[in-house]
């Protein structure tokens, strides 16, 4: 059961609940996803992935496969057209995995080595599975842990600052009355949206036309243009409906394969990834090993703060899981140090996965805060109140708005926190031990330049054109509401067109920036349009269109710490016989600026919290050291929360005005997941008296930890 | 995918004849496991013989209070049957503990018995596996095995049997009936799944081409006081990391009869006969239950990552037998 509470704003479209404008199409099946759009003469491509984790391709034995029924071509490094990977895209250099079939090197298990194209999907798959590829295998190394001597500190990038440092850490630790020093680990985790990655490409009147499922059509179009050395205007990418993305749907091998094949065959080509292929082709969250050292006065005031986060990347591309960024926003201390270290292994390149950095980082940091509260003998919420900073702990900049404590106050009231006995291991109900826990959440509120056009039509309606991506969030509906308020008309008079690169450039749906970025552009264009519409004046048949571009306004923003905040609460039950952990309820209270559509916003918060529950208890990709690949890479083997694991989740928000901000919207895509795993782990400690610093908190780990705790308590006299 | 033939059979002899002796033919029940394995390339049948329309969908009672159910009864229907729930609650509970509602609506009794292990090495054709490809090796021994066998395994294979239903059937001495071209036959469940030894690819004692037609539970009053408990890593849609089917008859504090089978610990449902022997005639106390569990688990050979199962199974035996004792004395 899922319940939510709260009162919608009484005026305006923004702030009141609206069902999705495309909802009927989606539930009736009328909405076509990228793998479903029909084309005359469509052909089907199937990717073949490497079975060795490192080495060189000796041969691709295409001959026998070309003789199979329906097979049209086999593309591989020996015959593939050139693609240009030496460029700087919107998010930096492209991941070399999109330089498809350009050489014979294999850097990890599951690297694309060939594409088989056939008349039907079944023929392509059968031929792809029959294709013999010979390798010269080399020893591989996929073992991740924090003690690796080849770990290094990455260079700063516009995305991630590797290290920050102030004060004398060791001195402050030495003079602290209370010290927490612990290592936390999170496993390799995968975003596997329900809709697999799928693209259909064709040449249409001299233009490349791609039907895709992605988080930004302008972005993918621009990358494809650069890869294939095409004029930007000659590439069109559409992504009408997206069945989930979570950071995984940018440029991937499937689009490149489809474009390459349609260029060779001059027929439409569709490439759809299988669930198993997604595990090596679309990125994932790196495992992390994080050491946290906190030094505090007896009353909990932090003197020393140190967060060192290790993660991995591939041998071909650098990605940093920025787990240590959280403390730069959350907690100040006299000495403050945050550091990222990475190691290159023979594995696929990780990527952004919902709340990159903050999700694993908050497990470690918010668990450590709970350990500090225990050691100081003060309430975990009181500890956070005591350490609430005035300004950015590292930047010194003011916060645009920071209502973290209001989240804790409201959450504590609703959750019944005041009645909590802080002592662990006391509450028992039959075979279950019960406990509660809390954690803070935060995520940056970013923004990116966008263009929009708003047209007043002759029939009295309005058309909004913004190249947004609705990846299941309700973005399309949110833009209707934003435009309606900006135009001061009812939402029923507004139609919105999104997800087409021909609409002009706009920010991607990523990093919780989409709604803020697009709403800004739509509002500016609507304002401009209203100024041009003369009272009582007529509208010509082609309508009147106003356009906007937020690049200048974004550049003029003052420097501030801009973030959403939240407080997570969890109650768990732990079976003393079996080690099973079940969550009984979750409550998340957020301060995230203006909430555009309470209906879909709750959905996003609850979705994030459910993911946090999965992260705490279930999610873990197992990498097989011998083969370098995964074991159980499918949705039966890779566990995430089932409905039965999610009994009661509530999400709500507090008022969070952002003074002087031109938009007031902060973005809510990520923050729901942040802190949830820590709140659950803290609740497991409260239930059992045992700290779990390794995710997921599986039954075997709970049983082992309980055994070890018992052994310690009895002086090691008894064995398991 | 590979093209395959599909035939629907309407009577048992017709089904057996259609399959013939073709090693590349498979009977298709609910398809909840076979179709997945076909997608993964683990199974590549040339012919599927659909047996869902065979007249094997009945649940009947045998003389003396036994239970006989056909091979095509769905897991949902068997679990919901009032007499199954009354006479053998552990069986109904084991079925409901499996898979999801949608899968149980499709899955059949015959298919449930014949489902393959979910070992991640078995289901990945790019990895070695002695069960799938005899002689290729067992990477689980040195690799991922936190949910693998602790009892009766061999160096050739440490995979577990995935069925929940079969654990309940093992506790209650089910007999499996089958049909072949040469006539019908029967196997007690204790002989149905052979020891893994050096032949992990031989998963049942069924003769080639045999079609399971029915399962019979012999009369046994103790089954009415029974329970199935499954431990898994999420609340639904996960295979067991440990499970137990137990029935108990206690009079005046003394164990008169006990049935005990353990799941997810071996290549087959593990009938805990050693524990049963220790318990019979002794006190129904937590200490006695623990001692019986220890006697059974003395044979356990845990690997680096699955030793917790010894603790888990011991705890489960004590917990479930204690619950049954307390309920029986009310």
- Total number of β-strand segments of chain B? 12
Helix % of chain B is: 25-40%
Indicate the radius of gyration of chain B in whole angstroms: 20 Å
Order of helices and strands of chain B: EHEHEEEHHHHHHEEHEEEEEHHH
Helix content of chain A: 25-40%
| Structural class estimated from helices and strands of chain A | alpha+beta
Pfam families (chain A): Ald_Xan_dh_C, MoCoBD_1, MoCoBD_2
Domain Aldehyde oxidase/xanthine dehydrogenase a/b hammerhead (chain A): 28-139
InterPro entries (chain A): Ald_Oxase/Xan_DH_a/b, Ald_Oxase/Xan_DH_a/b_sf, Ald_Oxase/xanthine_DH-like, AldOxase/xan_DH_MoCoBD1, AldOxase/xan_DH_MoCoBD2, AldOxase/xan_DH_Mopterin-bd_sf
Protein name (chain A): Oxidoreductase
Structure description:
The complex is a heterodimer of chains A (720) and B (330). Chain A has 720 residues and is an alpha+beta fold. Among the domains of chain A are: 23-31 and 448-555, Aldehyde Oxidoreductase, domain 4 (2-Layer Sandwich), CATH 3.30.365.10; 397-446 and 559-720, 2-Layer Sandwich (Aldehyde Oxidoreductase, domain 4), CATH 3.30.365.10. Chain A contains 17 helices and 26 strands. In chain A, the strands form 6 sheets. A 7-stranded mixed β-sheet of chain A has the order 3-5-1-12-9-10-11, with helices on both faces. In chain A, α15 (598-617) packs across α16 (676-688). Chain A is globular, with a radius of gyration of 26 Å. Residues 1-11 of chain A have low confidence and may be disordered. Chain B is α+β, with helices and mostly antiparallel strands and 330 residues long. Among the domains of chain B are: 5-50, Uridine Diphospho-n-acetylenolpyruvylglucosamine Reductase, domain 2 (2-Layer Sandwich); 225-328, Enolase-like, domain 1 (2-Layer Sandwich), CATH 3.30.390.50. Chain B has 12 helices and 12 strands. A 5-stranded antiparallel β-sheet of chain B has the order 4-5-8-6-7. A 4-stranded antiparallel β-sheet of chain B has the order 9-10-11-12, with helices on both faces. In chain B, α10 (273-279) runs antiparallel to α11 (286-297). The longest helix of chain B is centred in the C-terminal third of the chain and has 21 residues, at 308-328. The radius of gyration of chain B is 20 Å and the shape is globular. Chain A binds chain B through residues 51, 122, 125-126, 129, 276, 431, 577-580, 582, 617-618, 622, 624-627, 629-634, 636-637, 639-645, 698-700, 703-704, 707, 720, and chain B through 1-3, 36, 40-41, 100, 118, 120-121, 123-124, 126-127, 139, 142-144, 146, 231-238, 241-242, 305-312, 315-316, 318-319.
């Amino acid at each position: 059961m899922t319940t939510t509470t709260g009162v919608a704003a009484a005026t305006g479209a923004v702030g009141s609940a609206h069902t999705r404008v495309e909802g009927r199409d989606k539930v009736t099946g009328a909405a076509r996803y990228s793998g479903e759009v029909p084309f005359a003469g469509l052909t089907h491509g199937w990717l073949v992935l490497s079975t060795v984790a490192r080495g060189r391709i000796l041969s691709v034995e295409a001959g026998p496969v070309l003789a199979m029924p329906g097979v049209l071509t086999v593309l591989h490094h020996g015959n593939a057209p050139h693609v240009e990977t030496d460029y700087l895209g919107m998010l930096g250099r492209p991941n070399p995995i999109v330089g498809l079939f350009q050489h014979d090197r294999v850097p990890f298990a599951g690297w694309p080595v060939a594409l088989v194209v056939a008349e039907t999907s079944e023929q392509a798959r059968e031929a792809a599975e029959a294709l013999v590829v010979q390798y010269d295998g080399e020893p591989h190394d996929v073992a991740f842990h924090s003690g690796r001597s080849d770990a290094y500190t990455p260079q700063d990038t516009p995305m991630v600052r590797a290290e920050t440092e102030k004060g004398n850490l060791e001195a402050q630790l030495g003079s602290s009355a209370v010290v927490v020093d612990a290592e936390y680990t999170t496993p390799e985790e995968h975003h596997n949206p329900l809709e697999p990655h799928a693209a259909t490409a064709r040449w249409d009147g001299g233009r490349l036309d791609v039907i895709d499922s992605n988080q930004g059509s302008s972005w993918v179009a621009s990358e494809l243009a650069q890869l294939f050395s095409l004029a930007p205007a000659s590439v069109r990418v559409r992504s009408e409906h997206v069945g989930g993305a979570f950071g995984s749907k940018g440029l991937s091998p499937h689009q490149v394969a489809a474009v390459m094949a349609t260029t060779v065959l001059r027929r439409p080509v569709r490439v759809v990834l299988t669930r198993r292929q997604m595990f090596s082709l679309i990125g994932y969250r790196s495992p992390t090993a994080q050491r946290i050292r906190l030094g505090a006065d007896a009353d909990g005031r932090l003197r020393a703060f140190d967060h060192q986060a290790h993660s991995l990347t591939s041998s071909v591309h650098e990605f940093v899981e920025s787990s240590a960024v959280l403390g730069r926003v959350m907690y100040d201390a006299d000495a403050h140090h945050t550091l990222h270290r990475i190691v290159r292994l023979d594995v696929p390149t990780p990527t952004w996965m919902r709340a990159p950095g903050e999700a694993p980082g908050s497990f470690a940091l918010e668990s450590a805060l709970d350990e500090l509260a225990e050691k100081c003998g003060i309430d975990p919420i009181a500890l956070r109140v005591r350490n609430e900073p005035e300004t950015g702990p590292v930047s010194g900049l003011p916060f645009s708005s920071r209502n973290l404590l209001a989240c804790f106050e409201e959450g504590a009231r609703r959750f019944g926190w005041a009645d909590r006995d802080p002592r662990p291991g006391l509450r028992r109900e039959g075979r279950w031990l019960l406990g509660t826990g809390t954690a803070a959440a935060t995520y940056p509120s970013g923004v990116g330049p966008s263009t929009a056009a708003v047209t007043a039509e002759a029939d009295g309606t309005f058309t909004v054109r913004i190249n947004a991506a609705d990846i299941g969030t309700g973005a399309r509906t949110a833009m209707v509401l934003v435009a309606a308020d900006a135009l001061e008309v009812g939402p029923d008079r507004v139609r919105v067109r999104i997800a087409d690169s021909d609409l002009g450039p706009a920010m991607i749906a990523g990093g919780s920036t989409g709604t803020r970025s697009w709403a800004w552009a739509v509002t500016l264009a609507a304002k401009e349009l209203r100024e041009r519409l003369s009272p009582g004046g007529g509208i010509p048949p082609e309508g009147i269109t106003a356009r906007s571009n937020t690049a200048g306004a974004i550049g003029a923003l003052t420097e501030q710490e801009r973030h959403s905040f939240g407080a997570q609460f969890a109650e768990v039950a732990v079976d003393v016989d079996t080690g099973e952990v079940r969550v009984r309820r979750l409550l998340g209270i957020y301060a995230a600026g203006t909430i555009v559509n309470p209906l879909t916003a709750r959905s996003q918060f609850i979705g994030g919290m459910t993911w946090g529950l999965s992260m705490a208890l279930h999610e873990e990709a197992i990498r097989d050291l011998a083969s370098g690949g995964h074991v159980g890479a499918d949705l039966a083997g890779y566990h995430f929360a089932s409905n039965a694991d999610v009994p009661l989740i509530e999400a709500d928000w507090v008022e969070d005005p952002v003074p002087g901000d031109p938009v007031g919207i902060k973005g809510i895509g990520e923050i729901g997941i942040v802190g949830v795993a820590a709140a659950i782990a803290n609740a497991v400690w409260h239930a059992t008296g045992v700290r779990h610093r390794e995710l997921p908190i599986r039954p075997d780990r709970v049983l082992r930890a309980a055994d070890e705790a018992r052994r310690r308590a009895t002086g090691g006299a008894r064995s398991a | 995918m590979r093209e395959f033939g599909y035939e629907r059979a309407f009577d048992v002899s017709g089904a057996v004849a259609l399959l013939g002796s073709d090693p590349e033919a498979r009977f298709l029940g609910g398809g909840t496991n076979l179709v997945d394995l076909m997608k993964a390339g683990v199974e590549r049948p040339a012919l599927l013989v659909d047996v869902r329309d065979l007249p094997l969908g009945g649940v009947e009672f045998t003389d003396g209070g036994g239970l006989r159910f056909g091979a095509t009864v769905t897991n949902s229907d068997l679990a919901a049957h009032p007499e199954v729930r009354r006479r053998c609650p552990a069986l109904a509970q084991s079925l409901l503990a499996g898979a999801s509602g949608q899968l149980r609506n499709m899955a059949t009794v015959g298919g449930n018995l014949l489902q393959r292990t979910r070992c991640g090495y078995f289901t990945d054709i790019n990895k070695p596996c002695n069960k799938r490809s005899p002689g290729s090796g067992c990477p689980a021994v040195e690799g991922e095995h936190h949910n693998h066998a602790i009892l009766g395994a061999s160096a050739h294979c440490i995979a577990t049997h995935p069925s929940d239903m079969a654990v309940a059937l093992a506790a209650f001495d089910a007999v499996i009936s089958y049909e072949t071209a040469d006539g019908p036959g029967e196997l007690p469940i204790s002989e149905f799944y052979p020891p893994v030894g050096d032949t992990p690819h031989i998963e049942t004692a069924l003769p080639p081409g045999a079609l399971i037609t029915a399962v019979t539970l012999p009369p046994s009053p103790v089954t009415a006081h029974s329970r199935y408990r499954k431990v898994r890593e999420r609340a639904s849609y996960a295979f067991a990391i440990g499970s137990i089917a137990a029935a108990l008859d206690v009079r005046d504090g003394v164990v008169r009869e006990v049935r005990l089978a353990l799941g997810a610990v071996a290549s087959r449902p593990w009938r805990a006969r050693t524990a049963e022997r220790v318990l019979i005639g002794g006190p129904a106390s937590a200490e006695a239950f623990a001692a019986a569990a220890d006697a059974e688990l003395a044979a356990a050979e845990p690997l680096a990552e699955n030793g917790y199962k010894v603790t888990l199974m011991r705890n489960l035996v004590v917990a479930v037998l204690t619950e049954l004792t307390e309920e029986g004395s009310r």
